[in-house]
Amino acid sequence: MAEAVYDAYREEVLGRANVADTEELVEFYKDLESQHAGALWTVANKIEPWEPVTESQPVLWQFDRLREHVLRALELVSPEQAGRRVVYLANPGRRDVTAAVGWLYTGLQVMGPGELASSHRHSASALRFIMEGSGAFTNVDGHKMTLGRNDFVLTPNGTWHEHGVAEDGTVCIWQDGLDIPLMNALEANFYEVHPDLQQAVSFPIDDSTATWGNPALRPAGETWSKRYSPLLKYEWEPTYEALLKYARVTDGSPYDGIHMDYVNPFTGGAPMQTMGASMQLLRPGEHTRAHREVGSFVYQCAKGSGHSIIGGRRFDWKERDIFVVPSWMWHEHVNGSDSEDACLFSFHDLPTMRTLGLYRAEGLAENGGFQPVIS
Ligand code: GTQ
User: Fold this and answer.
1) Which domain of life is it from (predicted)?
2) Nearest CA to ligand 1 atom 9
3) Going by CA atoms, what residue is nearest to atom 1 of ligand 1?
4) pTM for the whole thing?
């Protein structure tokens, strides 16, 4: 049955709104409108869809096309002028908000040697994934961290944070991920500038990773009561090593290959309340099966190359490219190389979905689990 015919059938047979316009009804709708009111049955099917409907489109941003524009921002504005010198990624289906997908924001931040951005805090939670350059650092509530390639870093909501690059460093670019659109949708977003512009460094450099970032070892007697992870920086080398070790003993997920979540080491749960992140390894030639999930995903290729089929469309990616998967959209990943592994970093809003009891996932049953490719 064609989809439109099936929808009409479901509406009639399954008791969805199905009221034809008459002159009298149109008059009635106008009268209601003048009272800032409306008849539910005119909008019911739209506001209560059978399943999640996304306005976001699957999109891929090629880094080698964006990079020159990001570097141009370095010449055009200072961090003092801009606050944060960032080129954000805008989903073409979401002109109403600054969102990359769903209620998630992402952008590419660039800073040069000796530059400093002032300290602030906000209701939005933030994370970073380091793309290139050396000497970058961030200070989160007095915990100063050095940032290396493919490191994953947290800036939980409510924490003071600022970024910079050491005098002897190079131009650095990293990806920012924030739940700004979600905070604004909830009308819950506050923003504050630190009174000192630069906060003090109150702990030894990289103390959070030294304390909490050791595999399966928890510092004896240390406790933690905040709602986010005490580990603020997850370094690339141990992450990649963990994936390689796990790959030796598992077939992995049929949908995601060798797939590991960044967790709060104190609870084993999500690192922040609203957003989580993962790193996955696709073995040479691996082609995962299609599945879909309630939740929005922003991916960055951290290593290798391949393609993903998202909503029936093919997106080819290589290192540093960024792409998004909207909620409840079929997606599958392919490592295009026969000899090299490929790694995809991703962040998502699954902690929000899980907290609210909304998370669901399903695998594609038809066609051996692979989508027909439209384009
Ligand atoms: O570094 O705090 O890309 O507040 C957008 C908003 C980065 C940040 C962004 C922000 C930040």
Assistant:
1) Bacteria
2) 176
3) 84
4) 0.96
